[in-house]
Sequence to fold (455 residues):
Amino acid sequence: MMNKLKLLLFLIAALTSLQVKSQEAKGFAYYDSLTFSLYKSGNWKALEVASAEALRSGLDFYYLRARMGVALYNTKNYRTSVTHFEKAQAFNSDDPFVLEYLYYAYLESGRSADATKLASEHKGIITAVPGAKGNLVKSFFVEGGITPDAAPRLTTSELVGADRIYGETDIYNQQSYFHAGINLQLLPATMVYASASALNLNKQHRFAFPVYNNQGQSSIKDTTVDYQFLQREFYVAASFVPGSGITINPAFHSMSGNPTLTYSIAAGNSYSIGEYEYPFNHYVFSLSGTKDLGHFTFGINGSYAKLTSTGNQKQVGTSITWYPFGNLNLYATTALTGFFQGNNKRLIVDQSIGGRILPEVWLEGTFTGGDLSYYNEKNAYVVYNLTETINYRLGANLIYTLSPHIDLSLMYRFYERENEYFNYSLNTETMEVTLISNKIKYQNYSIFGGLKWKF
Fold:
């Protein structure tokens, strides 16, 4: 019995010794040789496995991180490759091989701000990448679009109401839009985008009221006044990158115009039409921030706006973007925004999903639900300062990289809107009249095209 116990202890000790020797054998020299061999042969999956095993064993050195980064890059898991290229850069901050890989991994991960900062900080080392030229002007962007006239046309009877006292409505007709902006790199970690826009609005103001002849008989006069005005817009946004994967974006958007509006003047049983100028100045201050963590980007945002003559608008929101494969082949963003204006509190939900459908073509689909009146999005780049209610919005974006310098975009937006009109109701018992606010739903759409030129 004792001999058997001694034999068992001997076998355990021998196996332990062999295991320790095996682990010692699989040290730096072993993993350096193995990963180099797999790197030269282009066996990327096996290289990922071997590199991960080395890291779990406690080893960590420049070539291990660089080779694992290359393996992940070649399997198109760019977001995970960024982690290893950054670790390799920490070992050797000026190696052009790793810096160039890291630059393109940032771009393929949707982290263009990090890529721009990296290229600017190492422009004397990685001279081959587009962002290393040191130009003040990084890109120029123009876009334009149109919203065709699709507003509802009420009959005279619908507008004036059953009691035929008075009716009034203001309708949005065709709209056209043009935008031009420039992207400047003021410092390695600081970009500024400045732009000017013009929104041309065609509108129609209608009045319906009774007119009487000499015999006291009435008929309804339906008067339409067509007018248009230009809304001028200015937008500026900065992008700060204080650390890898962290971006802070303050922004300001102003909108102004001076339309000539019409109004009705009651005089006994008759009405006349007058005009007055209505200058307005609207603005939005916005601040947003994002943090990249692995296959996710987390965002927070807030804004303060003055888009009506009375009251202010406040927003606070959060978002999360998921890149399931670590690249731009497929991504999805969910955003929730709380809107506050006095007692008006609402939640706006935005969902988008997109991906690469051809080597240089991306397609995105979007849905935004909730009342969008006086709402702003995309760090106040888009502001809904017009008076109509928008119940929901559907959209599609097509992006085509024509060349390393030119991106083309085509955007479609479908809206369900509500147009408001007013008339009066008569209480035959008290002979009092009450102003009635009515809404009619309708659908329309917008189409935009854009061009971005990268220097």
User: Anything to note?
Assistant: The longest strand covers residues 218-243.
